[in-house]
Amino acid sequence: TPLSRIRNFSIVAHIDHGKSTLADRLIQLTGTVAERDMKDQLLDAMDIERERGITIKANTVRIDYPAKDGNTYVLNLIDTPGHVDFAYEVARSMQAVEGSLLVVDATQGVEAQTLANVYTAIDADHEIVPVLNKVDLPASDPDRVREQIEDVIGIDASEACLISAKTGVGIPDVLEAIVNKLPPPDEGDADKPLKAMLVDSKYDQYLGVIVIVRVIDGTLKKGDRIRMMKTGGTYDVDDVGVYRPAMTAVESLGPGEIGYLNASIKQVRDTRVGDTITHEKKPCETALPGFKPSVPVVFCGLFPVDANDFEDMRDAIEKLALNDASFTYEMETSAALGFGFRCGFLGLLHLEVIRDRLEREYGIELITTAPSVIYHLYTKDGERRDLHNPADMPDMTTVGHIEEPRIKATIMVPDEYLGDVLKLCQERRGLQMDLTYVGGRAMAVYDLPLNEVVFDFYDRLKSVTKGYASFDYEMIGYREDNLVKMSILVNDEPVDALAMMVHRDRAEMRGRAMCEKLKELIPRHMFKIPIQAAIGAKVIARETLSAMRKDVTAKCYGGDASRKKKLLEKQKAGKKKMRQFGKVEIPQEAFISALKMD
Ligand code: GDP
Ligand code: MG
Q1: Measuring CA to CA, which of 147, 440, 477, 560 is 20 to 30 A from 111?
Q2: Is 190 helix (H, G, I), strand (E, B) or coil?
Q3: Which amino acids does the record list as binding GTP (predicted)?
Q4: Mutate which of 10, 11, 14, 16 to test ligand 1's pocket (most atoms within 8 Å of Cβ)?
């Protein structure tokens, strides 16, 4: 295909604005998939993606489009993830294409991730075609949203496509706009040595690692011996092909084209996104500027509820890590929870997705400890050590000062909820950086400690704004603060899995809340149980769970044996989800619930 007939693009949008639905329509209208194979959100393959309606891993698809000008064009769509945790994946897939469709829900308008994603596209020098979606809904207000796009983002929206990805209205205009408004790929040279970008990779159970590539110069074909310029690995190419969206082998991939290669690569870790792929024999001279590796920022312990599941869990975690190089793990032992893993994630959604997959796909019940960030501990001599787990916090007397990671959070919210949002940010030790208003919406920018955001900030934000706020963040660096380790003692024994780092000024409040919660969550025992929060040896909050007074079956007025049996069985089932700490049993859900602040 000549370059002039290729268009490579991505779709950027805030979550739920209709990106996946639009992709489906584009695929459907061009007959890329037979009607009977069409199902909603074709590109969102994983169950969790479908259920939550989010796109996690970027996917690609090649569409042949006979345009009105009489030519057939090859359209390569890269579907990017929409969630904040995967901002990095968005940035890297943007480098592989020349243009973006900016999808904005015409009933909602510009949201925080619309901004974040469109700025990423602008940074990648994309041509941008605005698309206003959901015009089938009575609440849609294309004129207002058009104005907003121009005011807030600063791009011309006068010729925006008005569409309904749901009903199919306006989709032909989108296809024409892709061909007419987006540029073809930059001039490449098929005769030059191979230079291709490694865009993404994923693990396929049967085929091993599949690498998504974008060819810049040269030609990639089956049988080639390739070298990854950064990692130095060399491989024999077994297959090259394109996604239509099913994998379809092709003879070769030339300049401007996007497709996959399969070269018996064992692990996703052996493929570095942003690496340059070239031929071993006749390599290209200069590598592409690489991307930074994604680094986990949120850590937590994952432990099997049933200690017998540990080996299965290890297998499952290794398998998941094969497909996700941004997920890290190492073995951890906890006095309270036994053997498990300390895992690192790009963010909270990433954490939830991995946890869900372990439970659902591998059938392992898990206890999750409090998510934590990486603290920088400095000794009095100024030497730095990274703390991934509050349980490893050394004695305070050996620590000079502690720095914590901070983020710049952008929150967009209708005016009427602004007060609640500002209050929430204040409570979480936020510093206001900016506050502006655009078309009935406020945009608040805060400098916040990541530590205060990782647990339930997003949930709280959604609840105080009835779901109307949108949120995006980026890391901005480390700053010193007055941080301490708070321990929780149940029946005078510290429960390491509940230890956390907190700001000194908020310790009493957090400690009190934790003790009160635990008092509700831990069932009564035959004896009195003190529940305490402490900093070092100093107790800062205390509750007492009084002893059980009566036999639990007493309320089943004597005679009814079957009810009595049922109750005992129910208790037994409930027990499975308990953990024994000394003489006390703590239900598994306590580890997460105790940390929620409301
Ligand atoms: P994404 O998160 O941007 O990929 O959004 P989805 O494509 O998953 O769409 C989010 C929700 O909006 C789904 O429930 C869709 O069915 C719905 N949706 C998408 N496009 C339209 C549209 O044009 N009209 C209406 N009424 N609903 C739509
Ligand atoms: Mg989607």
Answers
A1: 477
A2: coil
A3: 16-21, 133-136
A4: 16
Amino acid at 549: R
Q: Which two tokens stand for residue 517?
A: 């919660």
> What six digits make up the tokens of 103?
């999808």
Per-residue pLDDT of 71-118, as tens digits, reads 999 999 987 765 666 766 677 778 899 999 999 999 999 988 888 889
Nearest CA to ligand 1 atom 19: 18
The reply to whether 135 sits in an annotated binding site is yes
How far apart are the CA of 366 and the centre of ligand 2, in A? 28
**Which of 166, 171, 174, 349 for a ligand 1 pocket mutation test, highest count of atoms within 8 Å of Cβ?**
166
Q: How far is CA 236 from the centre of its chain?
A: 33
Q: How far apart are CA 576 and CA 587, in angstroms?
A: 9
Does the pLDDT of residue 511 top 90, yes or no?
yes
CA of 164, closest atom in ligand 1: 23
pLDDT, average across residues 410-438: 93
253, 373, 263, 364: which is closest to 312 by C-alpha? 364
- Residues listed for the chain: 598
ipTM over 0.95: yes
- Per-residue pLDDT at 528 exceeds 60: yes
CA distances from 468 to 182, 461, 481, 526 (A): 33, 9, 32, 47
| pLDDT number for residue 487 | 93
Q: Is residue 202 marked as binding?
A: no
For ligand 1, whether the C-beta of 319 sits within 6 Å is no
Atom of ligand 1 nearest to the CA of 40: 16
Cβ contacts of 147 within 8 Å, gap of 6 or more: 157, 439
3-class SS shares of the chain: helix, strand, coil, % to 5: 30, 35, 35
3 state DSSP class of 574: helix
Whether the predicted model's global pTM rises above the 0.90 cut = no
CA-to-CA dists, residue 361 to 48, 199, 314, 353, 354, angstroms: 10, 27, 14, 11, 10
Query: Ligand 2 centre and the CA of 72: distance in Å?
Result: 27
30 contacts 199 by C-beta, under 8 angstroms: no
The CA distance from 223 to 227, in Å, is 13
Q: Is the dihedral of CA 63, 65, 71, 77 positive or negative?
A: negative
Ligand 2 centre and the CA of 53: distance in Å? 6
